Structures are given as structure tokens and as C-alpha cells.
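REQUEST ID: PR-0412
SUBMITTED BY: lab tech R.K.
PRIORITY: routine
TASK: structure prediction, single protein chain
INPUT:
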Amino acid sequence: MKSPRKAAVAGVAALAMIGALAACSQGGADDGKLELRVATFPPGADQAAYDAFAEQEAQFEKANPDIDVVGVEYEWTAPTFAAQLAGGSLPDVFTVPFTDSKTLLENGQLMDLTKEIDELGYTDKFNPILLDEVTGGDGEIYGFPRQAYANGLHYNRELFEQAGLDPDQPPTTWDEVRQAAKTIAEKTGKAGYATMTSGNTGGWQLAVQADSRGASLQETNDDGTYTSTIDNDATKATLEYLHDLRWEDDSMGANFDLDWGSINQEFAAGNIGMYTTGSDVYTALVRDFGMKPEQYGLTVIPTEDGGGVLGGGDIAVVAPTVDDETKAAAVTWIDWYYMQKLLDEDAAVADAKALAASDQAVGTPVLPVLDRDTYEESLTWIEPYVNVPLDQMTGFTEGIFDQTPVGEFKGQTQPIYALMDNLVQAVLTDPNADIDALLKQIDVDAQALLDE
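STATUS: complete
OUTPUT:
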């Protein structure tokens, strides 16, 4: 699931294209240039973000004088995608969450870009787990994995200190998380640990914890159909764990109606000691929710019993209705705007300079789209411009490569996350919730969705 700040978590935000950015188009087709409409920011992005884009746009057009880039405001949502596609109102270049890419591939709604990506010469550099997210059943590649994240354990360093805990030694096991949460709740009166519960995000984060304990929530059958396997020991252990934090330890506070936005708001306000979400949320916490950078800490999610870390992100794609000339321009833009800053030192530095000059975050931890050597080299290029407190994130940056990335299950991802919301809510609001019965029923309900 995406960790927005970029596109909305789980792809549940509203899609809107409110028109072209001011001064982006200097004449379009009238001056003989090819007009390329590209997705930029969700509606409501701050001026600094637009200033940074304007500088990058000018750099691109200087290098590609035959292309006129027109930025449009955009956010993805699956329910309105088909209508936007049919109405011809999609940008030529836009982004899609990993959670929705397989459905679009199955529906033939993405442009085949295999030849173009191969010609660029870096197909083999992609993280293979992420490349699989844009590979169709025909083996062809339908987009560029352009950004990714792994879920991490975020913690409030100030609350750790108030509770007598060392913020430079965050928990490394789920048992240690529980003990730290209990201590924070007892010493500060704040929620030691919290989790999302609504808007599909409760299911998303239940999957994160279950995966960390070795769960497999869905199986892909030989004929391409799916079987729901949410009812397993790891999911049960996760629900029992949340039950114990809530009802035995009283360490989860009193708010059990949290989605991505509200949990970030509560965390930034200093009301939550720890929670899990995408590793790239720092920018939103500081820029959008007012968290003080010195309060923030990030480490990896504990794993056990062969578990891994659930990741997500999005892909840059080309509208399937464009002509060959526009397709070529679109690939040129994607390569320049998204990919070269990961591959080329000059491009990386130019991007970092533009972001830093506009007070945008540089250096936020991610799940690398490309191989580890390429990623680590790119960090040395932008080191002078990094403006996030990486020394408070070493638990994550040093530990993430030791964890096994896990992709989200593919069949009916968002509707099943909505079902899983109910599991989390039941356990946190009813001390006598029958976890075994809940798990048995959810596989029935999820399978019904998969069989539609």
C-alpha cells in the first residue's frame, strides 16, 4: 500500500485533475512542440512543491526543447480510473500504486513499455520483487517502479526519554515493543503503541504485522486464481498481540478509529509512542502535521519465524491511449524525472539541489527501487543536500537490507483490507472477541470476493 504524502495510502484518495499548473505550458501544440501532460502533485500541495517542480520542468525542457511539459494535479483512485480513461482525461504520464497494478494489467489498461525499458539498459538493475509488480502474465513490463517503501517502526524519541527509555536503542522484537509501549503508557499517560483501524489501513497494517511473523495471506493458484489464507497462525498471533496490548497492558490509549491521516496527526502531536507505517512518512509528519524533527525516530519492524517486511510504492505508467510520438516523449520524461536521479550523479545532485532549495525533504529512507550498490552510491552523491535527521533513523537504514521484502497480496487487495479492518476493530473494542471465529469467517468473505 502506498504511504501517501505522495499518492494516498492504499490508493483510497480521490482522483482529481484540476487543470494545468500556472506557467507550465508556454504554447503547447501551437509552437510546434509536443505537449506532454504529466501527473505532478495531489490537490493542495504546498507552493514549495510546485516551485521545485517548476525548476525541474525547466531543466527538462532545456534538454528536450521539442517537448512542452504540462503538469496536472492528480491523485489515484481505482473506482474512478475507468471513467477517466474512457473520457480521455488521464495525464499521458501518471502513477499507480503497486496494489492496483496487477488489476490494471489484467484489464489491459496499461501501456507495454518492455522495449523502451530494455533500450534504456537498466531492466536488470531493478529490485526483482518490485519489477514483478509491473510485469504482466505475458512476461512484458508495463511501467517503471519509481519509488518504494518498506514499513518501519516509527517512534517518538521525546516520549521514550520521558519514559526512561533510550531512544538510540529502539525495540528489536515484538516483545520489546510491548514492554516499551507499557512503560510509555505508565510513565507518560500517552498511548505507548497504536495502530490504524479504518479506511482499509487497519487491514494494511494487520498484514504488515502478520507478514513480519511469517504469514502468507493469499496463495496464487496455477490457473491464476487466488485462495485466501488469512486464517493462519501468524495472523492469529498478531490479533492476540493487539488484544493483549489493549486489554491486558492498557498501553494503546483510547482512540481506536485511526486511519493514515489521523494516526500521523496523533503521532506528530506527541500522543503516540510507536506505530508502524511506510518508512517514507517523515516528510508528511514534519511538513503536513507539524512534528519537530528532533522528536522523530525510525527503526525496522521486528521479524520472527521467517517473516519479512511488507513494502509498497508506485509505478510510473503511460496512458494506453497515447500515440507513438507521445509514448516516446513520455518514456523520455519518466527516465529523466524519476529514474536518472537514481542512476546518474549529475541528475541526482540536480534533483537534490532543487528539492533542498524549495525546503523539500532530501534523504528520507526508502526501499530501494534498484540494487543495493546503486542505491548506496546514490546516497553519497546527494549527501551534502540531505536535510533529514538520518542519525535518528539508523535502526532502519542499517537494518533494512537484512530483512526480506514482502509484496502485498494481489487479489482484491483493497476490498480485502477493508474486511481486515473489521478484525482489528473487533479485537480493540471487544475484550471477548472470538479471534478464531473471526479468522474463519474472514477467509469465507475474502474468498467470495476473489471468486467474483
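NOTES: Strands lie at 34-39, 67-72, 93-97, 144-156, 218-220, 226-228, 274-278, 296-300, 309-318, 405-406.
REVIEWED BY: pending
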